[in-house]
Specification:
Layout lengths: L8 E5 L2 H15 L7 E5 L2 H6 L3 H13 L1 E4 L7 H6 L9 H9 L2 E6 L16 E5 L9 E5 L4 E7 L5 E8 L4 E5 L4 H18 L2 E6 L7 H24 L3 E5 H10 L4 E5 L1 H15 L5 E6 L5 E5 L5 H8 L9 H18 L2 H19 L2 E2 L1 H6 L6 E2 L2 H14 L1
Parallel strand pairs: 1-2, 1-3, 3-14, 5-12, 10-11, 10-12, 15-16
Antiparallel strand pairs: 4-5, 4-13, 6-9, 7-8, 13-14
Bound molecules: NADP nicotinamide-adenine-dinucleotide phosphate and magnesium ion (MG).
């Protein structure tokens, strides 16, 4: 008997090798077990071109409406892609479009498995990075400054009054940069982090540099603290988890000494740096999941890697591929679990748990794709092809 669903899952298909994997996961693992109720959006580049990218916006609106989506990796077009796909426009990144509509924060978590040893040996549990995705140096205004110039910060109020502050009197040549953020964006970021920490039942850290940046970073710290005190302290205490603020350099030292198992909220640039550090230190980008959480709690689950273009061209030539599908499988299990929890559908939740165990169990028994085979410390290991690996998981799942 297949598991029934009551509310549709928003399904966003994508491009290249991950699109091939998407169909395999559905055919081999999902559809034989679940009476899948999904609202399907084809975010493959050809369909984005055909619909003038309307499909991406519709998918994001559906995500808002139903609350849970699962997304395949998609191509963000550059000049090469415009030629390759004869595009009429260099369509924007779908992830950017969806993030703007949901106003969410991205949480990235490594998937830990026996045989894949983190570079920091005491990291026994995953560290999740939450990156604020708006403002700071990513929306800056900067100039080179010739010798003898004076740089000032000028803010013009609605009534026209100007407030000026000296930045620097330049004796020699130099540089200057202006950055901003908004209370609203920081507040949404904080709310998404608190919501996600409660969902995962993990401690939340937020770190910045308020001792040096007494207005800018301090505002981040104050907003996190205000929202925590107003809306989350009681919930955190009840859940037995903690929130704390610390300086970014202290956070780095604590993180390295920790055993993992917490969520680390980062300002935009810090998040850019630390998500790559965490992905690398835990061993593999193919073993990293990503979920976009809106301040109201709507979620979009995906893999952190791209469309694995090089493997796709091999696949098109009929060559054997061994592409790791774990992060995409975990995107499905994460979305199905969340859907199950929202609908009170315990069978769906338990399916998600069993699917994750079967996936990890397969790897821990020595059956894995080539990328993991090359780094795994297991002794009896075997490299499987893309489809064989999914068949092995399905076999294990059927026995669980
Ligand atoms: P990528 O698809 O992540 O692949 C980079 C390399 O990492 C691959 O060539 C492969 O190495 C390895 N790799 C990544 N995922 C793997 C997996 N699941 N299994 C095995 N190996 C894996 O990044 P990219 O080549 O820079 O980008 C390709 C396209 O993806 C671009 O068009 C980009 O716009 C898009 N992209 C989309 C997203 C998203 O939708 N979230 C994110 C990033 C990039 P080897 O070739 O050495 O085996
Ligand atoms: Mg980066």
């Amino acid at each position: 008997m297949k598991i029934k669903m009551t509310t549709p899952l928003v399904e966003m298909d994508g491009d290249e090798m991950t699109r091939i994997i998407w169909k395999l996961i559905k055919d081999i693992i999902i559809l034989p077990n679940i009476d899948l109720k999904s609202e399907y959006y084809d975010l493959g580049l050809e369909n984005r071109e055909k619909t003038g990218d309307q499909v991406t916006k519709d998918a994001a609106e559906a995500n808002k409406k139903y609350g849970v989506a699962v997304k395949c990796a998609t191509i963000t077009p550059n000049a090469d892609r415009v030629k390759e796909y004869s595009l009429t426009k260099m369509w924007p990144s779908p992830n950017g479009t969806i993030r703007a509509i949901l106003d969410g924060t991205v949480f990235r978590t490594p998937i830990l498995v026996k045989g894949l040893v983190p570079y920091v040996p005491n990291w026994r549990k995953p560290i999740t990075i939450a990156r604020h995705a708006y403002g700071d140096i990513y929306k800056n205004s900067e100039m080179t400054v010739p010798a003898g110039s004076k740089a000032e910060l000028v803010v013009t109020a609605p009534d026209g009054t100007e407030t000026r502050q000296l930045i620097h009197d330049f004796k020699g040549n130099g540089i200057v940069q202006g950055v901003h953020n908004t209370d609203e964006s920081i507040g949404n970021f904080a709310a998404s982090c608190f919501e996600f920490a409660l969902y995962k039942k993990e401690d939340l850290w937020f770190a910045a540099k308020d001792t040096i940046s007494k207005k800018y970073d301090h505002r981040f710290k104050d907003i996190f603290n205000e929202i925590y005190e107003d809306a989350y302290r009681a919930k955190f205490e009840k859940a037995g988890i903690t929130f704390f603020y610390t300086l970014i350099d202290d956070a780095v030292a604590r993180a390295v000494r920790s055993e993992g198992g917490f969520i680390w909220a980062c300002k935009n640039y810090d998040g850019d740096v630390f998500s790559d550090l965490i992905a690398t230190a835990y061993g593999s980008l193919a073993m990293m999941t990503s979920v976009l959480v809106s301040p109201s709690g709507a979620c979009e689950y995906e893999a952190a890697h791209g469309t694995v273009q090089r493997h796709y061209y091999k696949y098109l030539k009929g060559e054997k591929t061994s592409t790791n599908s774990v992060a995409t499988i975990f995107a499905w299990s994460g979305a199905l679990r969340k859907r199950g929890e929202l609908d009170g559908n315990s069978e769906l939740v338990s399916f998600a748990d069993r699917l994750e165990s079967a996936t990890l169990g397969t790897i821990e028994e020595g059956e894995m794709t080539k990328d993991l085979y090359l780094v795994s410390t297991l002794e009896n290991k075997k490299a499987l092809g893309t489809e064989e690996f999914l068949e092995a998981i399905a076999g294990r799942l059927a026995q669980s």
